[in-house]
């Protein structure tokens, strides 16, 4: 496998540095996946722009982490699974719900289960939802328009999932307790 560098704020291309600074401020550290993605200023800047939309959207942070963790598991990307397991717990998901998602099962919480199921279905069906898929989501109390916002979250996480699988950045010590294998 190719060896992709994990850039620091100092070693990153100049056009990647503002995005990395923002991520370092947001997380209190620079995640290795961001350092790896910084090798492409277009990718890291695109990621930051899309994630600003995700985190400024309609879903709670716990719901966003449910989607991001589900996407990482569905895409089989190990670094993001560890990272989003950590963040999901931090945002208040139960240990049981996090473990369920990591094991490719649905969370017990009905709304989180609907989000997780829709995200997995979108990925598995490559966006080709049918009426029943949408009906199951809205039956959990979500507005139909939020299906489109789930697509945004799936798109955002696809960038980190694919970059994580291609670049394979090392897992930070902070996230090693949440290491996962596809």
Automatic annotation (TrEMBL):
Organism: Trinickia violacea
PANTHER family: CMD DOMAIN-CONTAINING PROTEIN, SI:CH211-175M2.5
Gene3D superfamilies for the chain: AhpD-like (1.20.1290.10)
SUPFAM superfamilies for this protein: AhpD-like
Protein name: Carboxymuconolactone decarboxylase family protein
Source taxon at top rank: Bacteria
